[in-house]
Write a structure and sequence with these properties.
The chain is elongated, with a radius of gyration of 19 Å. It contains 4 helices and no strands. The protein is mostly helical. The chain has a domain of 46 residues.
Length: 67
């Protein structure tokens, strides 16, 4: 519990809780990240089911590189 207490007291946590844009910005970033992960996994799943046959499996690896 010590880590969570420390995290709650950081300036970042205070900005999210008390700031005008903190919570909406973090929620938007979370939703965009989840949509990216689900979209990429959906495309790979469709390829494994036989759709998008012209795209090789090795070409899907570039979708997984985020940086």
């Amino acid at each position: 519990m010590g880590f969570l207490s420390w995290l709650e007291g950081t300036a970042y946590s205070e900005w999210i809780v008390a700031g005008l844009l903190g919570w909406p910005l973090m929620l938007s970033m979370h939703a965009i990240g989840l949509a990216a992960v689900v979209g990429i996994m959906f495309a790979i799943s469709l390829r494994m089911l036989g759709l998008f046959k012209p795209i090789p499996y090795t070409g899907l690896g570039s979708l997984l590189a985020f940086g």
